Amino acid sequence: MASEQKAVNMAALEVEYEHRSELLRGWRRFKSNRAALAGAVFIILIVLMAIFAEQISPYDPIEIVSGMRGVAPSRDHPLGWDHVGRDLLSRVIFGSRVALIVGLVASVVAVTIGVAVGAAAGYFGGWVDAALMRLTDTLMAFPLIALMIVLAAVLGPSLVTTLIVIGTTTWSRYARVVRADVMSLKEQEFIIAARAAGVRDFRIIWRHILPNVLAPVIVLATLGVGGIIIFEAALSFLGLGIQPPRPSWGRTLADGRAYITLYPHIAIAPGVMIFITVLAFNLFGDGLRDALDPRQRD
User: Fold this and answer.
1) Average pLDDT over residues 170-176
2) CATH, domain 2-292, list 3.40.50.300, 3.90.1150.10, 1.10.3720.10, 3.40.50.720
3) 4 pLDDT above the threshold of 70
4) How would residue 13 be classed by pLDDT, with cut points 50, 70 and 90?
5) What is the mean pLDDT of residues 12-23?
């Protein structure tokens, strides 16, 4: 028994060493990708802007100034005023906080559910795999935005509802990826040795399998953050997401829709921020995918 456990530990250490070496090579590949680095820098700037919104914002984002309704950009107000007389720059700055909260928290929820479902289906197989994959297929059969609209309308619009709705409807692709990797990984010698040594299934999944399938999940989650930000903007645009007066890029975009011909700057500012932020996450995700691809060579 002791010799079998030692063999399991040695095999696991060899796999861990190989992964560390691959991560170092991946970091060198990532640094050589200028587009990915630019995306990473912009993401860092957006995160800092969201964290320090109170210090950066020049004005109160919900304060209404009479007589400034729809006023064009100026030196003191670079993005102008919205349709009721609020400073747009301040609202865009605070809106970054909502975008990142929804993008990151909803991604964590989706990854957690997807990894759990995919790992269970791939490891146990049989009726567990069949039941979980049919559930996944059913979810993938629904148009996501339509499903989100229905759930948001039932639960009531709010930040928490937005997180729950997006997080619990976007996990299917993670489940598919994890299931495929687990089905391949569970036939490896160190997993077979762990079973022979009497290690419990949960411990095998948690200690030996999940660490080896996280790299593609992280890449997929990074690419998915941009899509989740768009989903949040779409729900807020439809009035089923973040509610006024709380600043949100999607909500501000919806406010500018009715005044697009009179005050086009109201819709332009949040639209540009959504575009650049989603592009930054996509570039960063593409860079991670290329860096962590084992088929790449230095």
Assistant:
1) 93
2) 1.10.3720.10
3) no
4) very low
5) 54
Degrees (nearest 5) of the Cα angle 172, 150, 258? 115
Over the stretch 52-100, which tens digit does the pLDDT of each residue have?
A: 999 999 999 999 998 898 899 999 999 999 989 999 999 999 999 999 9
